[in-house]
Structures
1.
Amino acid sequence: AGLEEMKDQYMRAVGKIRGDMLRYLQESKERAAQMIRQEVLRERRDTARKMRR
Amino acid sequence: AGLEEMKDQYMRAVGKIRGDMLRYLQESKERAAQMIRQEVLRERRDTARKMRR
Amino acid sequence: ASRFLEEETLRSQELLQRLDAHIEDMREDTSQTVRKY
């Protein structure tokens, strides 16, 4: 019964790790998408500026 | 002994998870760097083309 | 750039499957340990 309890604790612990990893992956992707959007806008502005000159 | 065995199983699972995460993140970084290189080259070519016209 | 994000999504899904497989392996192993003792 003690082993059963330990098993539950370990399974919960590893489940929490999974949740943390999932959250981290989602945040990373959002950050990457935002960075890409910013880069695209910046390059458009830079190109427009160069063209005007 | 059962507790010891279970702790090993947990540590091994955590180790595998950590290894996979590290590999994934390393590959993400490499792919991002490559994409940025490609984008920069493309922008330069496009800008040069536009300037010539 | 959108291609990059699409592939990142695919790769993260594969990663999650791998993590779940590790967790399932651990579930089986720990269950075996409980039965053994």
Note: The first helix of chain B runs from residue 2 to 52.
2.
Amino acid sequence: EGIAVAGLALKTKLGRVTLTKIPDAPGVAARIFAGLAEAGVVVDDIIQTVVGDGVATVAFTVEHSDLAAIKPVLEAILHNLGGGHATIDVGFSKVSAVGVGVRSHAGVAAAMFKALAEAGVNIANITTSEIKIGVLIDQADGEKAMQAVHRAFGLDRAV
Amino acid sequence: EGIAVAGLALKTKLGRVTLTKIPDAPGVAARIFAGLAEAGVVVDDIIQTVVGDGVATVAFTVEHSDLAAIKPVLEAILHNLGGGHATIDVGFSKVSAVGVGVRSHAGVAAAMFKALAEAGVNIANITTSEIKIGVLIDQADGEKAMQAVHRAFGLDRAV
Ligand SMILES: C[C@@H](O)[C@H](N)C(=O)O
Ligand SMILES: C[C@@H](O)[C@H](N)C(=O)O
């Protein structure tokens, strides 16, 4: 039925910032990322969810090297927004399954998540696009996760 | 500095399901998406955030046509998980900025979000990949959002 996973990628040494209780109003996301851009922070993935009560959760991943200086940058951004809370976590890796039609089928996502679950790997964050499913996991689980997902999709493990 | 937005895409008639208070343990995501796959639901984007208290928020978009039958599917999934809450919202469009190096710079995200803010468009969800920044907005704001972002990135509006 046309679902294909062409390959996997592993990106390591990622940190994650989760901003909670962010006011859900136009201009807020712009101010957060303008503040990060001005501070020279290189942002990897961005995810935002809302639970419908006027606030949003905005999370983004950054490379470990960018985390050292980020705390004051976040404090300034939240002060400027008049609210919100920032949590910084380190030690993640991102496993991405890349292919045509990958995320257009819940079955491919289910197969990837099942492989991770059976390997005992917890999924911290999920972000997808038309051609990719990306999961953030504990950095310590990176190799185990890659092997499990490779097996699940019948891909040859190239190193 | 190598940031390029090559084009924009608009996808309309999207609904969104947000599952809150989902147990943050291995196997949970697999069960959610296996349940959706078995029910034949076509999933567009998937986003998951966690706020560190043992629960996660898992959201996904689906085309309006798939929403009609989804309520009992979600109830069965949550019953099987032993917890969680599902919210279904309709009437969204997704604006995606596509390019090389698009999301690797907080500045490009900031510019896109600022254009939307200045057009008075609220950003409901954000999901990115290496080559794309996708925002979910009110369907009614679709045209206005596309024009604002096209202008911001100096792209020609091809109809
Ligand atoms: C939370 C944030 O994304 C807000 N909704 C905005 O449009 O900027
Ligand atoms: C919440 C869900 O993603 C869970 N952490 C899992 O690994 O399946």
Note: Residues 106-118 of chain B form the longest helix (13 residues).
